[in-house]
């Protein structure tokens, strides 16, 4: 009977331990459930953040491509303006050279015309002087003839 009592005590002790262990298991299961829920929530947030990051990465890539396109277009416009300016400058330099050549020719023509004018003017002065001299001589001769005629009659 002592043995039976011992066994009963042992069984009761084991039942208490079993109850305690069962209670602990329930607590552990609750903790695990809470942690699994927390992990699940974290996983959902992670997936949301991943989608957000992917979206932002696509937007960034599109913005970079757009910026590259704009830079390339601006560069092409600048190159085009540079070429147009170079062409215009070359045209203006050519026109300036032609104008200088034409101006020099006009100066030479003017100087030639002035020399011819001066020469012709001098020639006309000489002829006028010759004509006036001839005129004076003729007037003197006419005067002489008048005097002579008056003296004769």
Automatic annotation (TrEMBL):
Point to the regions of Polar residues compositional bias. 94-106
Q: What is its main location?
A: other
| Ranges of Basic and acidic residues composition bias in the record | 75-85, 108-118
The cellular component terms of Gene Ontology attached to this UniProt record, alphabetical and capped at eight, are: centriole; centrosome; microtubule; motile cilium; spindle pole
Keyword line: Cell projection, Cilium, Coiled coil, Cytoplasm, Cytoskeleton, Developmental protein, Differentiation, Flagellum, Microtubule, Spermatogenesis
Compartments it resides in: Cell projection, Cilium, Flagellum; Cytoplasm, Cytoskeleton, Microtubule organizing center, Centrosome, Centriole; Cytoplasm, Cytoskeleton, Spindle pole
Q: Which InterPro entries match?
A: Odf2-rel
> Region Disordered: which residues?
75-118
* Domain of life from the UniProt record: Eukaryota
Instruction: Name a single GO biological process.
Output: regulation of cilium assembly
Q: Which residues cross the membrane?
A: none
- Record's family? Belongs to the ODF2 family.
Concerning PANTHER family, the annotation shows: OUTER DENSE FIBER OF SPERM TAILS 2 (PTHR23162), OUTER DENSE FIBER PROTEIN 2 (PTHR23162:SF8)
The protein here is known as Outer dense fiber protein 2
Which organism was this protein described from?
Sylvia atricapilla (blackcap)
């Amino acid at each position: 009977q002592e043995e039976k009592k011992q066994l009963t005590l042992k069984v009761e002790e084991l039942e208490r331990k079993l109850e305690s262990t069962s209670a602990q298991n329930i607590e552990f299961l609750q903790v695990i459930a809470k942690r699994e829920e927390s992990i699940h929530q974290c996983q959902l947030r992670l997936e949301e953040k991943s989608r957000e990051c992917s979206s932002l990465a696509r937007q960034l890539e599109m913005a970079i491509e757009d910026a590259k396109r704009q830079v390339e277009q601006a560069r092409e416009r600048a190159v085009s303006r540079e070429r147009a300016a170079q062409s215009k400058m070359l045209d203006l330099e050519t026109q300036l050279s032609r104008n200088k050549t034409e101006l020099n020719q006009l100066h030479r023509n003017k100087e030639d015309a002035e020399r011819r004018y001066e020469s012709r003017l001098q020639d006309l002065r000489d002829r006028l002087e010759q004509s006036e001299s001839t005129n004076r001589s003729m007037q003197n001769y006419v005067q002489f003839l008048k005097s002579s005629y008056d003296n004769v009659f």
